[in-house]
Amino acid sequence: MLGALSSLVRPGRDLRVDFVRGLALWFIFIDHTPGNLLGKLTLRNVALMDATEVFVLLAGYASGLAYGRLLEREGWAPAAARVAGRVGTLYVAHIFLFVVFTAQVGYSAALLDHAAYLDELALDPFGQEPYRAMLEALLLRYQPHFLDILPLYIAVLAMFALALPLVARPLLLLGLSLGLYLIARGLDLAPPGWGDAEWFFNPLAWQLLFAIGVVLARADPAWLARRLPWNRWVAALAVLALVAVAVLLNLVWHGPARGWEPPAALAAWLAGVDKTGLHPARLATVLLAAWLVAHLLPAQAGFLSGRLAALFVLMGQQSLPVFCSGIFLSFLGRLAIEVSAGLPMQVAVNLAGLAALVAVGAVSAWYGGEGSRRRKPPAPGLPAQPGAVTG
Question: What 3 state SS string does the chain have?
């Protein structure tokens, strides 16, 4: 079985990117399942970052590789058109996800007489003003909980289409991106939401992380090795800093229940490390973690080609259908854990969820492979589907 899955993995890629992205998608499923004990071990509980930062950084990296090559070969207009097509695909996927998830949660709330589901997931406006809510969802101004990641990606990818000519001038691209980030944070500038609501992920700030991923993808490896070399003492300090942050986070969050009151200043600072505007501490954490992983996990690491790693590599290579399926599955997992939160159910939910996500990835990979054999082969040097995974 695992051997058959390995055969569906697309070769000729940096499998580290796909493997880490697959892990991030599984973490998103876990974090979106309330009551899941495994959630205590995911990134959001041990670092000033979570799977979203990983996802956006790697989305920028994948986009830089795929569309950067297309830009070099065919110019801005064809490359921008392909990016626009990808934006359209993501938009359709988001609206489909919105409709099905709303139906899933609404039906469950009515069947189980548990209206709190609607309130917790910010779906109650849909029950009060369904036509207006649908319109606002189409405009991306209404984003219920768990349905705010794809709008972020749609927005940053649309901005990337306009910024494609700057891919060849990375310093200018980073400078403009950083400037927009500082303006967005300094002036509290963000796209408008519906009523008093705001975008949970402000794309005007998060575009910086995406742009960094693009630049890293297009940079010469030798140049990167010179500018960001490995240093074991720096790495040791980085690991110590990450461990210290994990300890502090858990002391602040769980210390009072154990009789330890954290300093008020520390608690106040951590409360201000916002996710909406991609706080600099969150940005620094994900970049530091990326540096460590890039050096500690070689591109040719043997286990990446193994059967167990293939589960996550396959998920990472088929991230859009896997992500959408994970949203549905996480709510089903919640319903199951509410029936029984014991260890057997916890194990069953997590194993069944992982198996289902891998199955979605396998079916998507198989279908894509079948389709590619019916299409004309791509020109030499170009990927078959630029950005087909996450941009």
Answer: CHHHHHCCCCCCCCHHHHHHHHHHHHHHHHHCCCCCHHHHHCHHHCCCCCHHHHHHHHHHHHHHHHHHHHHHHHCHHHHHHHHHHHHHHHHHHHHHHHHHHHHHHHHHHHHCCCCHHHHHCCCHHHHHCHHHHHHHHHCCCCCCCCCCHHHHHHHHHHHHHHHHHHHHCHHHHHHHHHHHHHHHHHCCCCCECCCCCECCCCHHHHHHHHHHHHHHHHCCHHHHHHHCCCCHHHHHHHHHHHHHHHHHHHHHHHCHHHCCCCCHHHHHHHHCCCCCCCCHHHHHHHHHHHHHHHHHCCCCCHHHHCHHHHHHHHHHHCHHHHHHHHHHHHHHHHHHHHHCCCHHHHHHHHHHHHHHHHHHHHHHHHHHHHHHHHCCCCCCCCCCCCCCCCC
